[in-house]
Amino acid sequence: MALLHSGRVLSGVAVAFHPGLAAAASARASSWWAHVEMGPPDPILGVTEAFKRDTNSKKMNLGVGAYRDDNGKPYVLPSVLKLKILIRPMYSNPPLHGARIASTILTTPELRKQWLQEVKGMADRIIGMRTQLVSNLKKEGSSHNWQHITDQIGMFCFTGLKPEQVERLTKEFSIYMTKDGRISVAGVTSGNVDTETSH
User: Which top-rank group of organisms is this from (predicted)?
Assistant: First the structure.
């Protein structure tokens, strides 16, 4: 009885979270994993799934952690791409593949120099987006102190927004982030930073 109940709960959660997971939930319920209690839904995956379902053409996903260029496209360092092309036919053990690429880049002076420039370019873009975001918030008339956005470092930023503010941004303006107000600054681009701050 408990197994049947857990399968129903699991299927119900999967359908509510993502309709395509119902089949997987059903299969899991009949497997030897059925007795293992499900953890809570992943909040970051939930942001991504909600973003995918949104039909608004101006939607923004600020919850994703992958670095993107200023056009919002995934960015792979050119130095890594060069080596990937060279090393691809030689590798048969994927765990060594990344280590070989990193070792070659870090021990080849011209590749290391290029890599450092590329990483600095990525970091500078994120710093610039933080500065532009704060500047635009002030231009829009916000009297809130947003200095914490420029004081933080890295790809992520805790905005200080409350869950109800995040929910409003998502529902009314299709701007997605985690419920605790954390955003991926890599998702902010010169093309969307004005839109974000005008809400």
Answer: Eukaryota
User: Count of CB atoms within 10 A of residue 28's CB?
Assistant: 19
Q: Per-residue confidence at 4, pLDDT binned at 50, 70, 90?
A: very low
Check residue 196 and give its pLDDT.
Answer: 61
The three state secondary structure string of the chain is CHHHHHHHHHHHHHHHHCHHHHHHHHHHHCCCCCCCCCCCCCHHHHHHHHHHHCCCCCCEECCCCCCECCCCCECCCHHHHHHHHHHHHHCCCHHHHHHHHHHHHHHCHHHHHHHHHHHHHHHHHHHHHHHHHHHHHHHCCCCCCCHHHHHCCCCEEECCCCHHHHHHHHHHHCEECCCCCEEEHHHCCCCCHHHHHCC
The pLDDT of residue 46 is 77
Strand bridging mode 175-176 / 182-184:
unpaired
Q: What are 43's two structure tokens?
A: 């909040």
130 contact partners, CB below 8 Å, separation of at least 6: 149, 150, 152, 157, 185, 188
Neighbour count for residue 184 (Cβ, 10 Å)? 24
